[in-house]
Amino acid sequence: MRKCLILGLASLAVLFLTNPVFAQEAANKLIIGFGIYSAIILSAGFAVGLAALGCGIGMGHATRGACEGIARNPELAGRLTVTMILGIALIESLTIYALVIALILLYANPVLPKFLAVVGLS
Amino acid sequence: MEHPILFLCLILEKLGIPSGWIYYEEAAKYGTLAKVFAPHMVHSYFVCLLLIILALLGTRKKEFIPKGIQNFWEFTLESLYNYTKDNVPHGEGHSPNIVPFVYPLIVFFALYILFCNLLGLIPGFMSPTANINVTLGLTSITIVYYHLLGLRYKGLKYFKDFLGPIPWLFPLMLPAEIFSHVGRIISLSVRLFGNLVSKELLLGLLTMLAGKFFAPLPIMVLGVLVSFVQMLIFITLSMAYFAGAVEEHH
Questions:
Q1: Is residue A5 in some structural domain?
Q2: How confident is the model at residue A66, as a pLDDT?
Q3: What's the 3-state SS for B113-138?
Q4: Is residue B233 situated within a structural domain?
Q5: pTM
C-alpha cells in the first residue's frame, strides 16, 4: 500500500516536472493520443481477463458436478465426460467471444479513425 | 498476424495465378481471380479434394468384411448416424422422421470442419475455418436449412412459434424470439472462428518467441482436442436447431 502511494506520488511529481518542458500543443496531442491507445489496450486486456474469471467459475461448477456424478456412478463415466466436455466448450466460447472483441479492438478498431478525426489527430 | 508461408499459395503463384494475402487485399487490381484463389478458399478446395480422394479410395473395392480405409469410413459414418439419430426426432410418437434430410448435411459439416481444423496444425498450411467468411457461410447453411425444415413440417404454423407460448404476450415475446434467432448466426459462426483463430495466433506467437525450443508442440496437442470438440459442438448445435424447428413446443 505504502509502496503504491510512493510510486503514485513520484509519478505525479515527474508528470508535473515534465509537463512544462513540452510545447503546449504537442503535449496536448501526446496526452490525448496516449489516452486513446492506453484505453484501447486496457479495455482489451480487461475484457479477456474478466471473461476468463467468470468462465473459470462456471467451468469449475461444471467439472465439480461431473466429478460427483462419476464418483457416485462410475459406469456412466464415458457419457458424463462427453457431456462435460460439450458444456465446457460452450462455456469456453464466451471467453472466445471476449477474445474476438479484444482482437477487433487491437487490430481492426472501427471507431479509432473517426475518433482521431474528431479529436484532430491525423 | 498473417501466415508468412503458405505452400499451396506459393505453388499457385508459381503457376501464374494471383493467390495470396497480398493479392487478396488488393482484389480490385487483380480482379475476381484473386478472390476465387484467396488463401482460405485454396485451402478449402484442398480439403474438399482430400475428402473426395479418401471417399473414392474407400469405395474402390467393396468387401463384405471391411478392411483398412473402408472400415474407417464405415465406422465414421455409422457413429455419426447413431449420433444424429440420438439428437433429432426420428419418427417415434408424433414427431416426424427428419434423419434422412439432416444426416448428409451433418456428415458434411463434421468431415469438412474436422479436416479444416486439423489442416491448420501442419506447418505451412492454414485452417480455412480461421476465417470469418468460411464460418459465416457454414452457419448460413444451417440457419436457412432449419427455417426450411420448420416450414416444410409445420407449414405456416411455424411462424406461430415466434409469438411465444401465451397469445396476448406476443409484443413482448416477438422481439426476444427474433433476437434469439439472429443471435444464433453470430454465436455459431464466431465460436468456431474465434477458437480456431486463437489457436493459430497462439501457435504463431509461440513460434516467434521460442520456436527453436519446440514451444508450440503442447499447443498443437491442445489444438487436436480443440478441433474435435469444436466439430462436435457445431454439429450438436446444428442438430439442436433442426430439432427445435421441427418439434412441437407446447
A1: no
A2: 94
A3: HHHHHHHCCCCCCCCHHHCHHHHHHH
A4: yes
A5: 0.82
